[in-house]
Specification:
Distance between the termini: 19 Å
Number of helices: 3
Strand content: 15-25%
Number of strands: 2
Oligomer: single chain
Order of helices and strands: HEHEH
Largest sheet: 2 strands, parallel
Radius of gyration: 14 Å
Strand order of the largest sheet: 1-2
């Protein structure tokens, strides 16, 4: 999935946008978007934090270290 997003950014020559994944982004994807500028990348951990912060009826039950 991450690879698909990375390739789509390259093909579309994106200049700004938001990428959201429930997983995580590869280092290559993060490095690539740094060069573009206005790309906000939200991984699964950050997504969960935002959902809890803004009351999206999500609560942390447990964490599993990777």
């Amino acid at each position: 999935m991450e690879y698909v997003l990375f390739v789509n950014l390259q093909v579309a020559t994106a200049r700004k946008g938001v990428l959201i994944t429930t997983s995580s982004f590869t280092l290559d994807a993060r490095e690539y978007t740094k060069g573009i500028g206005n790309i906000l990348m939200i991984d699964g951990e950050k997504l969960a934090e935002l959902m809890i912060k803004y009351g999206m009826r999500v609560t942390e039950v447990s964490r599993f270290p990777l």
